[in-house]
Design goal:
Number of strands of chain B: 20
Largest interface: A-B, 27 and 41 residues
Number of helices of chain A: 12
Oligomer: heterodimer
Strand order of the largest sheet of chain B: 6-7-8-3-9-10
Structural class of chain A: mainly alpha
Structural class of chain B: alpha+beta
Shape of chain A: globular
Distance between the termini of chain B: 54 Å
Strand content of chain B: 35-45%
Number of helices of chain B: 10
Number of strands of chain A: 0
Order of helices and strands of chain B: HEEEHEEEHHHEHEHEEHHEEEEEEEEHEE
Order of helices and strands of chain A: HHHHHHHHHHHH
Strand content of chain A: under 5%
Chain lengths: 281, 353
């Protein structure tokens, strides 16, 4: 019996290793190919670092300016989208759960709707709205695309926050806080947010990832974000575009890791602050 | 506990409260007075409106009509966070991201409690016997400990009224009894006006100065536990509190004829053909054969319950349950013939439906 168990465990381990290896190849192969393309001239096969060096060399073509503008716009929009999406959705979901539970299905439906509508269709509807925003309300600055991105990330933010709110006893926690004199702001900021922190962080991660990777809206509404600037660079020099894409991928990963570390640091600091209050006998 | 004495002794008046949910009248012209420093328990079956009454007092539930006065001030229109009360919920309700001390400290911060908060935290944790658990998180505590922390937190903010919403329901039997006694001790020590909601009659009878029995949003009767038990004013109260034998009888003024015997009746009893409600402890059994048919019975089941025994006896037209001392019941066995004797204790008679 022990021999059978050992064989079964060994088989399961082998299966896991194979699955992980295949998944790694699936994800890494395109990146390795991209890296290879960025240093190997396609026609001659010559390997050099010109595409990478071009990123730090003096630039007369304006490519790097375009890239900087696109990256800056995307980062600003990522922050705006995170703040708007979570700032609107978290209180709304709390309100629905506490006071208007019969509306929860409708809110869920509305939040998940963008998943079922192709971005191209969405942008057709948004185009006339942005025409008005550009000319009559705000201006043609790219960062106002963040309003549209809020719609785009709604399904992901909703799902993440929904999981977080389901994991706590929202009604009792909010009623307890209220009964001790806390305002609704205190309920939200001091009680609910700390208890759904991981859900909020997940929502932030996915929002940042979506915004930094968004192309369709910006391209069709003629705005400059990271992806459209990469597209422009790609038209003139594919190798530089490949190098920039890899660089951006690395930067995005670093950004998300940094965010994760900052949140972890904040949680440890909070735990230290709250923990020991001396009890005197 | 001088810090809590400042909050003790505030009177509460709930006047003609009505609250309707769809077609259900959760509170139906409900009125209740709680004297300063008194502990009142609201008792009733599920859906009787007791929790709605408590939540209305706390401000967590709006009322459709009526008024709520606390310490002479009408607070009906005040939101929950401005009513200066504290509530202990059934589901512990500690903030999971804060330590035990953090929970109490946070509540004191919200309520802007004057004085050294660290001392207040420590004092209240000592009061509930958890002085050494200050730096623990709720998930590291047992259910009973969490509920003690919730109680300490509620007392620390020196509320005008302490509200307890079935605080013992989620605990196991032994812890429930311990904490029940502790709640009573602390309430008496601190002297805080308290409204306690429960569906457990034993809990209500043991803990409260007065017990209010509710049904369908109405307060059916309120009084001292002994009065509620021994002098119920309605069949519902008699039936709900404790165990009751329902025996057919014929009422004649202040007494009724039941099982061939005369039983004194409580004021307010019905007359004519009635059902007389008699407690098991007001029935005794005597082993005997050949007694008058209308008071003769045959033992069906005997049940030993430690300090006493319950014996079910078949009588003409039904059965009765008698509660006997262990010595009295030891000689009885199923099938034995007995004489059923009703004690001379007033009972309630209700009209036979």
């Amino acid at each position: 019996m022990a021999g059978v168990n050992a064989r079964a465990k060994s088989g399961a381990k082998t299966f896991r290793v194979v699955v992980i290896a295949l998944a790694s190849v699936y994800f890494l192969l395109p990146l390795v190919s991209l890296a290879d393309f960025s240093v190997r001239f396609p026609l001659t096969g010559k390997v050099d670092a010109n595409a990478w060096l071009a990123l730090i060399a003096p630039d007369d073509s304006g490519r790097l300016d375009l890239l900087r503008e696109g990256l800056f716009n995307s980062l600003v929009m990522a922050v705006m989208t995170v703040v708007l999406a979570i700032g609107i959705l978290l209180p709304t979901m709390m309100l629905v759960r506490l006071r208007l539970p019969r509306l929860s299905r409708i809110v869920e439906f509305i939040c998940l709707l963008p998943l079922t509508i192709p971005a191209v269709v969405l942008v057709v509807g948004l185009a006339p709205i942005y025409a008005v925003i550009s000319t009559k309300i705000l201006d043609a600055n790219t960062i106002w695309l963040a309003f549209a991105y809020v719609i785009l990330v709604l399904p992901f933010v909703y799902r993440s926050l929904d999981a977080g709110l389901r994991s706590i006893d929202l009604k009792t926690l909010s009623e307890t806080t209220r009964s001790f004199g806390g305002s609704w702001w205190t309920v939200l900021w001091r009680v609910i947010v700390p208890n759904v922190r991981s859900a909020i962080v997940s929502a932030c991660f996915i929002t940042i990832a979506v915004v930094l990777g968004e192309f369709t809206f910006a391209r069709m509404l003629a705005r400059t974000n990271l992806q459209t600037s990469l597209f422009q660079i790609n038209l003139s020099d594919g190798q530089v575009a490949a190098a920039v894409s890899l660089l951006c991928l690395g930067l995005t990963t670093l950004l998300l890791v940094a965010l994760d570390l900052i949140v972890g640091l904040g949680e440890r600091r909070r735990a230290r602050t709250l923990a020991p209050v001396t009890v005197e006998d | 506990m001088t810090q809590t004495s400042a909050s003790a002794g505030r009177g509460v008046q709930l006047r003609n409260l009505t609250r309707v949910f769809g077609s259900v009248r959760a509170l139906d012209d409900f009125s209740l007075d709680i004297a300063p420093g008194e502990m009142v328990a609201l008792l009733g079956p599920s859906g009787c409106g007791k929790t709605t009454a408590l939540r209305a007092l706390s401000g967590l539930e709006d009322v459709d009509s009526g008024s709520i006065v606390v310490d002479g001030e009408d607070v009906t229109a005040k939101p929950a966070n401005r009513r200066d009360m504290a509530m202990v919920f059934q589901s512990y309700s500690l903030f999971p991201h804060m330590t035990v001390a953090g929970n109490i400290d946070f509540a004191c911060e919200l309520r802007k409690v004057a004085g050294d908060r660290r001392t207040i935290v420590a004092e209240n944790l000592e009061l509930v016997g958890l002085g050494t658990q200050a730096d623990r998180y709720p998930h590291q505590l047992s259910g009973g400990q969490q509920q003690r922390v919730a109680l300490a937190r509620a007392l620390a903010v020196r509320p005008k009224v302490l509200l307890l919403d079935e605080p013992l329901s989620a605990l196991d039997a032994k812890v429930r009894v311990q904490l029940r006694d502790e709640i009573r001790r602390i309430q008496q020590e601190v002297g805080i006006t308290t409204l306690f909601v429960t569906h457990d009659q034993e809990e209500a009878l043991v803990v409260a100065d007065r017990v209010g029995v509710m049904s369908s949003g109405k307060l059916m009767q309120i009084g001292a536990p002994a009065d509620i038990y021994s002098r119920p004013v309605t069949g519902f109260v008699a039936d709900f509190i404790g165990q009751t034998n329902k025996l057919p009888g014929r009422s004649a003024g202040s007494s009724a004829s039941v099982l061939g015997q005369t039983v004194p009746l409580l004021p307010g009893s019905a007359s004519g053909d009635v059902t007389v409600l008699i407690r098991p402890e007001n029935i005794t059994l005597r082993p005997a054969a050949g007694v008058a048919a209308d008071r003769a019975g045959r033992v069906q089941i005997t049940g030993f319950l430690g300090s006493h025994a319950k014996v079910r006896v078949e009588v003409p037209g039904g059965f009765v349950v008698a509660q006997l001392g262990v010595g009295e019941s030891s000689g009885l066995a199923p099938g034995d013939e007995v004489e059923v004797i009703l004690k001379d204790v007033p009972a309630l008679a209700v009209a036979t439906s």
